Amino acid sequence: MTTGIDMGSGRDGAPALLDLAELLATRLLVQGNSGSGKSHLLRRLLEQSAPLVQQAVIDPEGDFVSLAEQFGHVVVDAACGDAELQRIALRVRQHRVSVVLNLESLDADEQLRATAAFLGGLFDVDRSMWFPMLVVVDEAQLFAPVMAGEASDEARRLSLGAMTNLMCRGRKRGLAGVIATQRLAKLAKNVAAEASNFLMGRTFLDIDMARAADLLGMDRRQAEMFRDLERGQFVALGPALSKRPLPLRIGAVSSVDRGGAPGLMPLPEQAPEDASKLIFEAGANEPSPSPWPPRPAAARPRPPANDVFRQIESYRPTPAPEPEPEIPMDPAEREAIMTEILRELMADPETRTRQVAVLYQDFTVRCRMRRIGQASLSLDEFRRRLAVARAGASADITGSERWQAALAAAASLPEDLHSLFLFIVRSAIEQTPCPSDAELAAVYGSHSPSRARRLIGYIEERGLLVCHVDFRGQRTLALPTLGLETAPGLALPRTTAGMPRGARG
Predict the structure, then answer these.
(1) What Pfam families does the database record attribute to this sequence (predicted)?
(2) pTM of the model
(3) If DSSP codes are grouped into helix, strand and coil, which group holds residue 63?
(4) Which CATH class is domain 398-504?
(5) Which residues pair with 19 in a beta bridge?
(6) Residues of the chain with CATH 3.40.50.300
(7) Is the CB of residue 445 less than 8 Å from the CB of residue 423?
(8) In what order do the strands lie in the sheet with 175-181?
(9) pLDDT digits (tens, 9 = 90+) for 98-139
């Protein structure tokens, strides 16, 4: 089961699904000339994922403020000032509120500074607030330009640094960047290079077509196809979309698009002489002309920051429309379904490297899809169950008294070591050979055997583990507080560099 959201239709009319859980870990880059349908694509993505994940939209033209009416997004006027924006961003992450940062009232320099302040506030929060969030940036070439423009160098530097943090370091903090640009050549390369998913729309310049073809792994002779794409047609590639270039057409949206181009309208019918009078003669109620050159507009009054804070604190997310309603079931059946969902998560080889907050988001989505409720487990309870699931213990083992004693002993360790400790306990109860450093590293979520050895040494220093290597070089891990011991494992390398203190005999 995947957390797929429907983006439209793909080849042969099949649904084009985007794996939301994968997107949170791999980021997305959208490219297309003006009029290719980028904003429509972003709106479709936001609408389909709004009930499933928290969202923040950086909106330079005010096109996405209509999301507030239908999906409950809070519109933040960026004119409130940089310090207020940082505080608002902190509370956005704390209360898990979906927001639209409206920048349309600011000039180019102020837009860059406001974006840098807001993204910095989302980025610099305590680890306890690292919940999954989609951060959608429209017209990303404005905020991460490849060269200086009309804005000051300082504002450009601040904005570029914030965008680089979002795309390069945001994943560990739960921030999944979704950036859209008119031209890849205008976007800073260190920002674009961090995306693993791509949606390429219509473009005409040779340099942009060549770069799009390179990113999609296509032959340069195939780059001409990007000229023939219609509005709303894109070519998709990436782990969250398709392993091969996939043409797709974006589906319809339900919210109002303020940024749509005006349609054709017939001209009023009038005689040429009447048209001349309209141009050269003043009308009855015609306002007086403004002086030339125009005077700078008066600064808009900044909204009180307390009003924005109050709106965020009183925010209630829009409930997911599907599935409805929750199916009544007995606790044993509900427990069995949650166990099955955890088993499905563990079957994914990339699960061990994902953050607990991302896995919890995936778990809650799967629970809603199985119609057993949105809050089946709290985050703390999910962490405990995830540690048991990563240890791979059977139902007979988890129901034993020794296992309950192991859970009590694990409580004295940091949370990220629970699964590693319980995996060793399981091996000792089953009397299987002592796990290798590579196996322990995989359970912990690392590829470094040396890191696994350091973690064993840390647990040993806490008095919960004793590591012994016999004369044949076979390691045994003993658990003195539980009266358990693993069977001897494979012979270790002769070098003792990096081994735990107790493993050197």
Answers:
(1) DUF87
(2) 0.57
(3) coil
(4) mainly alpha
(5) 4
(6) 4-258+304-313
(7) no
(8) 15-19, 4-9, 242-250, 233-238, 197-200, 28-31, 175-181, 133-137, 54-59, 99-102, 74-77
(9) 999 999 889 889 999 999 999 999 998 888 889 999 999 999
